Amino acid sequence: MKQTKLLISACLLGQPVRYDGQSKPMPETKWAALQQAFELIPVCPECLGGLPTPRPPAEISGGSGCQVLKRQARVKTAAGEDISLAFISGAEQTLAIAQQHGCHAALLKANSPSCGNRQIYNGNFEKTLRSGQGVTAALLEENGVRVWNEEEWQELLAQNVRN
Ligand code: SF4
Q1: Which residues form ligand 1's pocket by a CB distance below 6 Å?
Q2: Which of 8, 12, 131, 147 is deepest in the core (most CB within 10 A)?
C-alpha cells in the first residue's frame, strides 16, 4: 500500500541543522512509530532559505509568521539583522516540497520562528513564549497543509488512522 507522506523537521530526525549546530531528535520509539505510518520527508526551512549552520538565533519581531509573509513583521537576530527574506524563501521552498510530494500534514519543531505551530518567542530574546506561528508553519497552513508539533505526534497518528 502506498504510504501517506509526512513533512517533518529535519532536526527532529537527528540532523544537526539547528542554529546552534545541534539537533533535537525525538526518541527513536516515536519516530519509528511515525515511520511505520508515513513516508517521512525531512526539511529544514532555514537551511533551504540559505542560512548557514551554525547561525545566530532569530525571533519574530512585531507579529507572527503570517505577518512576516505579508512584510508586516520581521525576523531578526539579537543584533538586529533583518533576515526575513531568508525565512520567507525557506517557507516557500518547503511549501513547494510539500506540494511536489502531495503532503497534507507536517510534523514540525515546536516554538521555532520557522517551524512553530502554536507558540513562538516574543521577539525580545528573553526566552518568553507567546501565541503565534513560525513563518513556514503559517505558509503551510495557509495552503492546506496541517501542521502538528512533536508533542502532538500521537494525535497525528490517530488522525492518520481515521483518514
Ligand atoms: Fe529544525 Fe525547523 Fe529550525 Fe530547521 S528551521 S532547525 S527544521 S526547527
Answers
A1: 9-11, 17-18, 44-46, 109, 112, 114-115
A2: 8
